[in-house]
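Appendix B. Raw example, untouched.
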Amino acid sequence: MFKVIRLGATPVGLSLFSIQVYAASSEKETSKKELLKVEELSLYSSPACETKYVENPQTQLEEGVSHLRHVMEPYTVWCQDLYAQAMPKLEKAVERGRETYEFLQNPPAGFYPRLGVIGFAGIIGLFLARGSKIKKLVYPAGLMSVGASMYYPQQAVAIAKAHKKQLTVAQVGFL
């Protein structure tokens, strides 16, 4: 129907250039019946959109994982709540540990001998508390508090004043 004018063989370097190709009609007769309208060309028309979303069915593995996640959801929420409550307490404990470590790196004068006497009072309390479980709790704690109050009287008075009501109730309950 159409003739294309051929170009000769070109070197590779010329292939990068744009080349115009002309077509000539072999038939001089072109009737209006053969001409196509722009709407009839497939380039300018779009096919009718008849798409439908189809979800893939779940496999056994996906169903099992989904079921497991639904079953475990209350436990994961519980763990998250527990974590949220425990983290501030753990952070405070870590901070106190760091402060204690720094304090023990540069202790005040005479700190270790005082600590030794207070600890030795606790060990003596364990030896004296043979038999009863209550004695094993009261004697070491009592002797250690007496030793601590001898070396740190100002702090002992401050603690006694702060917990005076609790100490009074404990004495009445003990009698």
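End of appendix B.
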